[in-house]
Amino acid sequence: MVTSLRRWFARNARDLPWRRTRDPYAIWVSEIMLQQTQVKTVIPYWERWMRRLPTIATVAQASSEELHKLWEGLGYYSRVRNLQKAAKRIIELHGGRFPQDFDQVLDLPGIGRYTAGAICSIAFNQPTPILDGNVIRVLTRLEGIGGDPRAKATNTRLWLLAERLVRRSAEAPARSQGKFAGRGDGVSGKSGGACSQFNQALMELGALICTPKQPRCPLCPLEAQCAAHRQGRTRELPALARPAAVTRRRFVAIVARRGARFLVRQRPAGAVNGHLWEFPNVELSATEGDPRRAAGTLLGCSTAVLRPFCRIKHSITRYRISLEAYRIVGDNRFRPSAPRGRWLTPKQLSRLPFTAAHRKILERLLTGA
């Protein structure tokens, strides 16, 4: 099974930029970005990040504004803040060199068991197991494992299986990685090493072949060994718990102008999307009738001067968000109850990191749409 999977990976692995290096810093950044985010989305972000912040030291020294701007659009912004915290700890405790010990990697902010295992296996060729969504899907189908894979007993079983397999891969010699052979930097061998190859192959199989809804079983190198395929259970496995019910939320925002400047505010550090910028806004209650009334109350202005600007639809995990934006025309003098913020020019606004929904308002504002 190990040999078949690595042979398949050598022929079919995608040419991803972080696969051209064994640099643990570059691999770490890719793994953090890939959490909750698709590969095609991550590639340009990773490439831009590595150009701007090529070393651990540059991350540790970067300003909050620069970090959030580089991360703008990826979401889950605690990831980038933890990345900087970890960079500072690496400098403080490890002299700026990324640690190779699994427990030391696991101790870094923002790094859990999966991420530590991925970094140690891919960068350092250590037999450390990994268990992300793709690997869970492959292993539950391969072994016919029922039960919610996030439940304690099933999850423990999957971790033990992943560990047994990667240790078995360490006993076999590394194979040439096909189109990636010779691109490594020597940290774990030019082909990436047996453990590196195997764990990446597991993830790649889940991403390309053993997909959630329509697995491409005839193309799978493990088809003959797959219990779910033999038993006709590929649609049943993994037996994930039902996702949380969708919650709908409504917001209203104000685009206020004073000469060539617009009013924006920064979200507080401890809030959702902390440190990011937005236009003044307020959430509407389920019974709120006229959103302009809430908008007028927000800035202390008459609803008569409010004109519809745009409506943004946005999704975050289980939330379906509707954001209605209004522009103030004519008199823009607000009462003292108006929210605090900063009046900035379009050029200044374009350099700031905005929340995803408010970035869409800004884009329409800048393009005159």
Provide an overview of this structure.
This protein is α+β, with helices and mostly antiparallel strands. It has 2 domains: 230 residues, Endonuclease III, domain 1 (Orthogonal Bundle), CATH 1.10.340; 121 residues, Alpha-Beta Complex (Nucleoside Triphosphate Pyrophosphohydrolase). Helices cover 43% and strands 13% of the residues. The strands form 2 sheets. It has a 4-stranded mixed beta sheet. Strands 2, 3, 4 and 8 form a 4-stranded antiparallel beta sheet that branches. It is globular and about 75 Å long. The N and C termini lie far apart (56 Å). About 3% of the residues have low confidence.
Query: Would you identify the regions where 5 or more consecutive residues have pLDDT less than 50?
Result: 181-191
SSE order, as H and E? HHHHHHHHHHHHEEEEEHEEEHH
CATH-defined architecture of the largest domain: Orthogonal Bundle
How much helical structure, as a percent, in the residues? Answer: 40-55%
Our Rg estimate from Cα atoms comes to 25 Å
Overall spatial form: globular
Q: Bin the strand percentage.
A: 5-15%
* Strand order in space, largest sheet: 5-1-7-6
> What is the helix tally?
15
Biggest sheet descriptor: 4 strands, mixed
The class by helix and strand makeup works out as alpha+beta
Please write the CATH class name of the largest domain: Mainly Alpha
Q: Mean of the pLDDT scores?
A: 90
CATH topology of the largest domain, which one? Endonuclease III, domain 1
First-to-last CA distance: 56 Å
The beta-strand count equals 8
Within CATH, the superfamily of the largest domain carries the name Hypothetical protein, domain 2
Number of domains: 2
